[in-house]
Amino acid sequence: MRIGVPAEVKVHEYRVGLVPGGAAILVADGHEVFVQKGAGLGCDIPDEAYEAVGCTILPTADEVWATADMIIKVKEPIAVEYPRMRHGQLVYTYFHLAAVPELATVLLEKEISAVAYETIQTPDGRLPLLQPMSEVAGRMSVQVAARCLEKEYGGRGVLLGGIPGVLPGKVVILGGGTVGTEAAKMAMGMGANVVVMDVNLHRLRYLDDVFGNRMRTLFSNPQTIADQVVNADVVIGAVLIPGARAPHLVTEEHLRSMNDGAVVVDVSVDQGGCISTCRPTTHDDPTYVVEGVVHYCVANMPGAVSRTSTYGLTNTTLGYARALAGRGFVEAVRLDESLARGVNTHAGQVTCAPVAESLGLHFQPLDALV
Fold first, then answer.
1. How confident is the model over 94-123, as pLDDT tens digits?
2. Residues in contact with 179: Cβ distance below 8 Å, sequence separation at least 6, in sequence order
3. Known catalytic residue at 285
């Protein structure tokens, strides 16, 4: 198969869809790999590293998209890339379609086989391709929150860990999955007062067993959320419903009850956000203020630590990429239920039920199409 790796075009997105080590394995499998010139520079990977393992460097994104049967990316295609997608092409990347209905329209019109990293799900419920970026985003969320709390960034002027004689900052984390757990680790490491909220009691019991009295766990409902955010210095949105829009848990009324200069970081912004006042921002202009509360809502947070993120991502995406390229799309999804769950669109149909529900589109089971 001809596999293309274009440079990412989202603002300040420095990751790349495939590292040379992964490309070497695909070449050894007998595939041709075409990489756009300079695609890896944001991760400190020169073109020569790809050439050394047998890849072909192409000058432009147009040439990569036109040459490849299968595209491997990091972020969802944006408007400038829509014309580059070819009818019936296989695109393997994060899509988050619930938040970008216009992209879904293009995928359906062009009958793209869209395999979304974020909805590939194992029988035990794990999301293996979402996990490494969730780990990065969870840890980064506390780093950026700590910075935003500084007065020069519009914050309250609070040091998360406090000092002897001065209370530490309070961090409320909505969601106890991978993002929430990693955020809690970082916040506890800084010495903050940490509260993790979730509707999954099994998960709360697990976190309590692992971390004990280093954090507090609370069952999440409208009342407990209201009670906890009112005096929080930081609220981190870490809610995920695979393929669907995140529910709005923090309202403008909640924000009005919070202290001026408090900070919200909505990691779930790429799925619509769980904070009602959230809107996607970029690394160029990452924050804005609503009701006196600083909002950090960058939709590609891991892009800022591109080298760590890219290598972590390829570690998990490569196995499914080999299956798709080696067996072909139809055979690969027939043989692997986890991979089949990652297919969001195929043959002009929406094949992921949560995506269809979020966008108000007709759902067509994948097994009826392959």
1. 999 988 999 999 999 999 999 999 999 999
2. 134, 135, 137, 138, 141, 236, 238, 240, 267, 268
3. no
Q: Which residues contact 28 (CB under 8 A, 6 or more apart)?
A: none
96 is catalytic: yes
Residue 178 phi/psi, 5° resolution? -60, -50
pLDDT in tens, 277-334: 999 999 889 999 999 999 999 988 998 999 999 999 999 999 999 999 999 999 999 9
Of 69, 270, 295, 336, the catalytic one is 270
Cα 42 off chain centre by: 18
Structural domains in the chain? 2-120+306-368 (3.40.50.720), 131-299 (3.40.50.720)
Cα gap 346→365, rounded to integer Å: 10
From 31, 69, 96, 295, the catalytic residue: 96
What region does 360 belong to: left with phi over 0, alpha with psi -120 to 50, or beta?
left
